[in-house]
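About this split. The held-out portion is used to measure sequence recovery: a designer receives only the structure tokens and must propose an amino acid at every position. Recovery is the fraction of positions where the proposal matches the reference. Here is one held-out target exactly as it appears in the evaluation file.
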């Protein structure tokens, strides 16, 4: 590499300000590209790739970020196709890994829904495997193991497939280790694989602890071999995500002392802040706690002063300041988070979080409702805790937790935090939701996180102290949606009644029913198409899981009663669905007698269907008793073989 290119690299490494670095990068990127194209070699290609990645890391707009990644990957792919050079292939492979990791961090929803990425992974697993067979270069085994870990973690839905892929990844890395046991990257990747394996094996405590211990051993071995900043940083992340804040803080200080890339240090400084903040809840000696808080506060300040005003970093800084009894400064920093681009005040943030919650079931929620593009659920979770713990504002805390839950519906920490807050608020209308949140937290949790058990015990203790009638299984679930939702639901239903366009009303009615069930904490799906043949699809208006039973939903809002055809359509969909599923047919204008008789006869064929007419639905909505009504109708279906049992406020106890 000539002196001019080396000078560019030195200039970039010496600059900390993101805006200045970006300016230098953009100015010099064509120079490096031309130098490479004039004399293609792996050193200049690595430099060019590094410059482009730095530009990407300093780009906060998600779409622009994706476009820049796409441009870089296509450029590298073009050159590796032109010149069969294994170093070019390795540079492309590591760039693809950087891209995948960046997508997970910045656009997790889009990442998980991207089938193209899944195919790209499979293609490159084959490519690196072929290169290894041709060159015997152990680095291709590391790449294959890394790709397989991504495949297992994000694109394998079946448990057995996940286990199979992660075991294959570990075999690749073990083989790489047998060829070269001095490369720390092997042990970092083994640690990450074992860390993931601990999660999928977490229901067996012995398997979990074994995998966690092995993961830690590999991260420590990486540190011992190379003593590199990347090895220490990987160990910091491991301790952070296994809820070991003491170890995380200790290792992060060592990492800080050896990290020469200050921009990488500043980008990851939030890890230190979050770990130090979590110690404040663990009754650590004051001198140790203050030392970590002070050190992390200084590092976060340096990062922010250098221009690294990333949302998660700002929230970590605000927490640290609040822990150091500087709440006013902390609050102002939160204001900055929401006012930097759009001039929001704190009160406007509260209003916006309200409107975001109103629309959170909308498919465009994440794109349109999140302020300043903050789509990281952990940020909203931390904002909820900040609002609850420091601002003593339960209303704002609830909004933040609910937005976090909308972004990550199965995150056990978020579910537990929201449940704990609702217990503290102690409104009977929340009891059903608290129970639901803790059930999901228990189901989705692993051995790394067990705080839900403490919150569940608090909830059960609270129920035991209230009136026995309220604390029975179904009585405390009668009020099923929040008071502030009550008028909104009725208003939406009245708007539907006034609509004249029958087709548009029918489409919106489907969404209304789905959202109504969700507001009552009944797991529900929007309308979707279900394949019943190679090119044949059937439209499902909605689906839900209630009382451990899977329901397919059909909705009708027409001027005439639903007839036999409507019943048969739903029966056909039930036959092509899961075994033992149920049907829920809702018709505002009611049903013909033939339709009722057809549904009734099919109960004997184990095709169980519940019918709900408009009069009954309006009664349920106006009296906020959907869970109780569904339970009553379900019991009538089982005990009386009655598909059209009419729920009323005076005949709830039918057993």
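Reference sequence for scoring:
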């Amino acid at each position: 590499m000539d002196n001019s290119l080396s000078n560019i690299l030195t200039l970039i490494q010496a600059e900390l300000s993101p805006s200045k670095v970006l300016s230098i990068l953009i100015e010099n990127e064509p120079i490096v590209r031309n130098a490479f194209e004039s004399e293609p070699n792996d050193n200049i290609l690595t430099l060019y790739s590094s410059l482009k990645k730095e530009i990407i890391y300093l780009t906060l707009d998600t779409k622009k970020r994706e476009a820049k990644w796409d441009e870089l990957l296509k450029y590298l792919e073009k050159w590796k196709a032109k010149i069969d050079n294994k170093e070019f292939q390795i540079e492309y492979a590591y760039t693809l890994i950087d891209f995948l990791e960046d997508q997970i961090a910045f656009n997790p929803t889009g990442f998980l829904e991207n089938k193209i990425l899944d195919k790209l992974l499979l293609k490159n697993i084959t490519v690196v495997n072929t290169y290894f067979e041709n060159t015997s270069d152990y680095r291709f085994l590391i790449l294959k193991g890394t790709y397989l870990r991504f495949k297992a973690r994000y694109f394998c839905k079946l448990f057995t497939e996940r286990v199979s892929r992660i075991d294959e990844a570990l075999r690749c890395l073990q083989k790489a280790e047998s060829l070269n046991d001095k490369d720390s990257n092997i042990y970092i990747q083994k640690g990450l694989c074992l860390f993931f394996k601990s999660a999928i094996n977490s229901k067996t405590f012995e398997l979990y602890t074994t995998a966690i211990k092995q993961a830690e051993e590999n991260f420590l071995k990486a540190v011992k071999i190379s003593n590199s900043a990347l090895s220490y940083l990987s160990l910091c992340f491991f301790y952070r995500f296994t809820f070991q804040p003491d170890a995380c803080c200790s290792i992060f200080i060592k990492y800080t002392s050896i990290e020469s890339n200050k921009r990488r240090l500043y980008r990851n400084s939030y890890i230190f802040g979050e770990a130090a903040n979590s110690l404040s809840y663990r009754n650590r000696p004051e001198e140790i706690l203050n030392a970590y808080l002070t050190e992390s506060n200084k590092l976060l300040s340096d990062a922010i002063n250098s221009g690294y005003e990333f949302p998660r970093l700002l929230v970590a800084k605000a927490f640290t300041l609040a822990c150091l009894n500087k709440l006013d400064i902390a609050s102002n920093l939160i204001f900055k988070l929401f006012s930097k681009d759009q001039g929001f005040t704190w009160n406007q943030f509260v209003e916006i979080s309200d409107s975001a919650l109103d629309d959170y079931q909308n498919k465009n929620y994440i794109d349109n409702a999140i302020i300043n593009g903050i789509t990281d659920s952990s940020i909203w979770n931390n904002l909820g805790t900040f609002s609850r713990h420091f601002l003593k504002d339960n209303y704002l805390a609830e909004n933040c937790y609910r937005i976090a839950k909308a972004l990550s519906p199965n995150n056990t920490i978020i579910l537990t935090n929201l449940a704990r807050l609702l217990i503290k608020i102690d409104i009977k209308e929340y009891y059903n939701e608290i129970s639901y949140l803790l059930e999901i937290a228990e189901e989705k949790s692993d051995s790394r996180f067990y705080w839900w058990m403490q919150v569940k015990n608090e909830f059960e203790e609270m129920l035991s102290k209230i009136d026995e009638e309220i604390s029975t299984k179904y009585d405390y679930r009668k009020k099923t949606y929040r008071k502030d939702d009550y008028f909104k639901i009725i208003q939406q239903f009245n708007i539907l009644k006034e609509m004249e366009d029958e087709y548009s009303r029918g489409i919106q009615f489907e969404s209304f029913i789905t959202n109504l069930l969700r507001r009552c904490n009944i797991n529900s799906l929007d309308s979707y198409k279900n394949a019943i043949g190679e090119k044949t699809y059937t439209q499902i208006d909605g689906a839900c899981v209630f009382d451990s039973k899977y329901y397919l939903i059909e909705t009708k809002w027409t001027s005439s009663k639903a007839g036999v055809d409507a019943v048969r359509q739903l029966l056909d969909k039930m036959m092509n669905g899961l075994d033992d599923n149920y049907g829920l047919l809702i018709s505002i204008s009611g049903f013909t007698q033939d339709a009722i008789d057809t549904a009734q006869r099919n109960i004997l064929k184990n095709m169980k269907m519940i019918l709900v007419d408009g009069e009954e639905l309006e009664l349920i909505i106006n009296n906020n008793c959907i869970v109780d009504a569904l339970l009553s109708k379900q019991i009538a279906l089982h005990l009386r073989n009655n598909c059209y049992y009419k729920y009323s406020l005076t005949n709830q106890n039918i057993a």
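Annotator remark: DSSP finds 32 helices and seven strands in the chain.
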